């Protein structure tokens, strides 16, 4: 650059152009604020210091749980339960959502209005209607196929109203999963939540049986951030997660995903 | 023609055939011997009945109480609606003219009672059968109030809606006209025909025709609570015109509902086409409503399902299931003060939620819209009940276990399968969780488990049923939280006690 100094006006133009590109790339992101996870490692990774409100977020299951999206539902409940005043419109195809279980992840079932529909198209329509309504704190949609255009519509509607949209991706066949898993979408972030084996309780405080719920949460895609993963545990029914204090073979430090370049973030 | 018991009978005739002496009920062979050139078609009774029903529905433009009557009649209760047409004669003239335009031969009569109208329509001035259309608007077919007996007296006894066998019985004793029966003392009738049967039927039919016995008309569908109608001078078919008609009627209806302090839960918008068909749009709202803009939007959103055909001449908007709706709920749509989050169990849904539920319900069906209602039950399926959002909140929602107490570990799954999914499991000791199980064709090795938590049927509920019904040993379930080697967690239960037959295992849910 020093060899080819720009004129003043050209420099101004360049900055204006960069701003414009940024706006196009990230329309309205963060306009409605963020919801911090209160886990420093995560919040530091996310632009603005938390999950963008008034935006579309995708949450994927892992392995066989891609069919039930149970871990994803728990993770989503933890987020929706902490989102402001209003109901949570939860749209799904299989009516297998269980209120008492969601309560254990911080979402009061009395706040949920369930919409059951047979087709993805109807769910997308219902979600969009919900995104335009006052009194809705969050929408959660369980969806198989998400066409690019539909995702963009949801993202725009969320941006306009400030309602946060969480999409749980559920695939009932291997073919469906293979076709959708890698498909780009208009969502601001894409997460994958996988169950992790629980840790034995510390010797002093020995309780037999299953320990606390643990997840490996991967942030696969994030505008303005890089793919990264953490091991988290669900401590109680408040909906908050915390870094899992690990054994030697399961470090609590966030781990860079294999295929992603040059990013390493320190433990919180 | 119609085939009965191997014989082919004439079911109906046109005026030309009737003029040649062919009558309904005649064997086809006889008819052909009279008139070798007779053209016949198989009778389509089901089609005829459907057409009659459609016509009865079309007649609802005159009154909501309409119903098909027998195979060839339609009854309409016009009490209280004739004045809308300028009087009974005008109503009859309008009806007759419209029927004639549809090419429907008809005879109509108006009288104090259903029985009298039935008799007059079918039997008065029977000589002019050949061209029934001519009768229609004749003043003679409108029996003035109190004139029923005089109008019926000259008619044959068959006009009393009697069985042919009864008619024959009356003929045998020389009673041919209704006037002769009316004149007879009832006791004499009873002596002649016995205490029940014939006499009772005849007397009852007579009393009905004379208005001494009430005979309510059961209408074709559900009777609406409120109803508004828009008659169009020119048939319309443009979607924009239909939308305007819907909006105007909604405004009219809302005015009426507001005056009465009511709100509608269900609306039906009927478009009466010039060809006699009726196209319907039905909408339901999650709560009683009388917001004109909102209701009109729900209705016009479904206008694309309406086929206007050659044009629509009448639009009728009917409100069903009207309920009391306090005025302030509509006139101050702003949310009440205070920043309490609207909860589904509370009365206050906030500004936008009611209309949202209505839009969702109108498209997907109100029954697809539910909330998860906690109940005090330890049976997992009953602890959370999906109840329609449109229902009023549960009178006494029981708090969730642990609510208000310190937050607990998630001990219930986020997904519950109904019915539970059977698995193939292997276990060692009777009270042990399985060490391995196969679910959805995948083998899971159990790494850790919690349990058992025994859940049996609620002994105070006689109708309690779990998987195999009350009282069976399977009604005892032992639940285990089980974690497999990959860390996924399942809610498994063993149904039944150890022994013979061996207990069975199910996955009831998965944890997050």
What does this structure look like?
- The complex is a heterodimer of chains A (268) and B (512).
- Chain A contains 8 helices and 11 strands.
- Chain A has 268 residues and is of the alpha/beta class.
- Chain A has one domain: P-loop containing nucleotide triphosphate hydrolases (Rossmann fold, 3-Layer(aba) Sandwich), CATH 3.40.50.300.
- In chain A, β4, α5 and β5 form a beta-alpha-beta unit.
- By secondary structure, chain B is an alpha+beta fold.
- Chain B has 4 domains: 2-43, 3-Layer(aba) Sandwich (MutS, DNA mismatch repair protein, domain I); 48-210, no CATH class; 226-330, 2-Layer Sandwich (Dna Ligase, domain 1), CATH 3.30.1490; 415-510, no CATH class.
- Chain B has 15 helices and 17 strands.
- Chain B has helices at 15-19, 28-34, 45-58, 88-101, 114-123, 148-152, 164-172, 178-183, 186-193, 198-210, 239-260, 292-300, 328-331, 353-364, 380-383, and strands spanning 2-4, 7-9, 66-69, 73-76, 226-236, 262-273, 278-289, 312-320, 323-324, 369-374, 384-388, 415-426, 436-439, 442-455, 477-484, 489-495, 504-510.
- In chain B, strands 12-13-14-15-16-17 form a 6-stranded antiparallel β-barrel. In chain B, strands 5, 6, 7, 8 and 9 form a 5-stranded antiparallel β-sheet that branches. Chain B has a two-stranded antiparallel sheet with strand order 1-2.
- In chain B, α9 packs antiparallel against α10 and α11 (239-260) packs antiparallel against α12 (292-300).
- The longest helix of chain B is centred in the middle third of the chain and has 22 residues, at 239-260.
- The chains are: A alpha/beta (268), B alpha+beta (512).
- β5 of chain A pairs antiparallel with β10 of chain B.
Brief descriptors of the model:
heterodimer, A: 268 residues, alpha/beta, Rossmann fold, nine-stranded mixed sheet, two-stranded antiparallel sheet, 11 strands, 29% helix, globular, disordered C terminus, B: 512 residues, alpha+beta, MutS, DNA mismatch repair protein, domain I, Dna Ligase, domain 1, 4 domains, six-stranded antiparallel barrel, five-stranded antiparallel sheet
């Amino acid at each position: 650059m020093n060899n080819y100094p720009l004129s003043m006006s050209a420099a101004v133009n360049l900055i204006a152009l960069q701003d414009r590109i940024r706006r196009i790339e990230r329309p309205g992101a963060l306009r409605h604020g963020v919801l911090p996870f209160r886990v420093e490692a995560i919040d530091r990774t996310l632009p603005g210091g938390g999950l963008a409100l008034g935006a579309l977020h995708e949450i994927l299951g892992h392995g066989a749980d891609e069919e039930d999206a149970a871990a994803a539902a728990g993770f989503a409940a933890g987020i929706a339960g902490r989102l402001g005043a209003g109901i949570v419109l939860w749209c799904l195809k299989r009516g297998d959502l269980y209120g008492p279980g969601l309560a254990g992840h911080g979402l009061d079932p009395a706040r949920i209005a369930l919409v059951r529909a047979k087709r993805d198209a109807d769910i997308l329509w219902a979600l969009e209607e919900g995104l335009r309504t006052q009194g809705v704190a969050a929408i959660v949609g369980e969806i198989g196929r998400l066409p690019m255009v539909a995702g963009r519509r949801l993202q725009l509607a969320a941006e306009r109203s400030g309602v946060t949209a969480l999409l749980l991706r559920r695939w009932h066949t291997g073919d469906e999963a293979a076709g959708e898993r890698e498909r780009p979408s208009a969502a601001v972030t894409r997460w994958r939540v996988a169950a992790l084996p629980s840790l034995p309780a510390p010797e002093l405080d020995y309780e037999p049986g299953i320990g606390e719920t643990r997840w490996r949460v991967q942030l696969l895609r994030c505008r303005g951030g890089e793919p990264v993963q953490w091991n988290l545990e669900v401590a109680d029914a408040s909906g908050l997660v915390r870094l899992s204090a690990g054994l030697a073979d399961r470090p609590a430090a966030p781990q860079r995903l294999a295929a992603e370049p040059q990013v390493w973030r320190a433990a919180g | 023609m119609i085939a009965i018991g191997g014989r082919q009978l004439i079911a109906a005739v046109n005026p030309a055939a009737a003029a040649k002496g062919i009558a309904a009920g005649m064997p086809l062979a006889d008819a052909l011997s009279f008139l070798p050139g007779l053209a016949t078609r198989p009778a389509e009774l089901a089609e005829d009945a459907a057409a009659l029903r459609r016509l009865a529905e079309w007649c609802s433009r005159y009154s909501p109480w309409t119903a098909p009557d027998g195979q060839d009649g339609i009854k309409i209760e016009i009490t209280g609606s004739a004045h809308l047409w300028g009087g009974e004669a005008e109503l009859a003239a309008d009806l007759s003219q419209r029927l004639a335009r549809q090419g429907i031969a008809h005879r109509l009569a108006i009288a104090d009672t259903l029985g009298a109208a039935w008799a007059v329509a079918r039997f008065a001035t029977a000589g002019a059968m050949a061209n029934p259309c001519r009768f229609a608007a004749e003043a003679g077919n409108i029996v003035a109030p109190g004139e029923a007996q005089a109008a019926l007296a000259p008619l044959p006894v068959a006009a009393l809606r009697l069985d042919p066998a009864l008619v024959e019985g009356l003929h045998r004793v020389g009673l041919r006209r209704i006037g002769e029966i009316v004149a007879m003392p009832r006791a004499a009738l009873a002596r002649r025909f016995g205490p029940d049967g014939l006499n009772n039927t005849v007397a009852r039919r007579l009393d009905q025709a004379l208005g001494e016995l009430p005979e309510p008309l059961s209408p074709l569908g559900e009777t609406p609570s409120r109803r508004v109608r828009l008659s169009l001078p020119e048939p319309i078919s443009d979607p924009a015109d239909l939308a305007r008609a819907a909006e105007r009627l909604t405004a009219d209806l809302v005015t009426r509902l507001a005056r009465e302090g009511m709100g509608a839960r269900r609306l039906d918008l009927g478009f009466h086409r010039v060809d006699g068909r009726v196209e319907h749009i039905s909408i339901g709202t999650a709560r009683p409503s009388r917001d004109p803009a909102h209701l009109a939007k729900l209705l016009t959103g479904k206008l694309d399902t309406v086929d206007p055909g050659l044009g629509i001449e009448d639009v009728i908007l009917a409100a069903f299931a009207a309920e009391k709706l306090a005025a302030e709920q509509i006139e101050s749509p702003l949310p009440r003060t205070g920043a309490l989050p609207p909860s589904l169990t509370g009365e206050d849904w906030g500004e936008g939620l009611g209309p949202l539920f209505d839009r969702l319900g109108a498209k997907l069906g109100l029954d697809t819209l539910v909330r998860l209602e906690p109940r005090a039950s330890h049976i997992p399926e009953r602890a959370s009940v999906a109840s329609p959002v449109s229902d009023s909140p549960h009178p006494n929602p029981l708090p969730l276990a642990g609510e208000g107490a310190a937050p607990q570990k998630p001990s219930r799954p986020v997904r519950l399968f109904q019915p539970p999914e059977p698995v193939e499991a292997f276990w060692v000791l009777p009270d042990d969780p399985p060490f391995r199980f196969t679910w959805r064709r995948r083998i899971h090795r159990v790494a850790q488990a919690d349990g058992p938590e025994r859940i049996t049927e609620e002994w105070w509920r006689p109708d309690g049923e779990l998987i195999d019904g009350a009282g069976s040993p399977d009604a005892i379930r032992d639940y285990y939280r089980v974690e497999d080697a990959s860390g996924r967690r399942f809610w498994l239960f063993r149904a039944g006690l150890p022994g013979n037959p061996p207990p069975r295992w199910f996955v009831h849910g998965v944890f997050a």
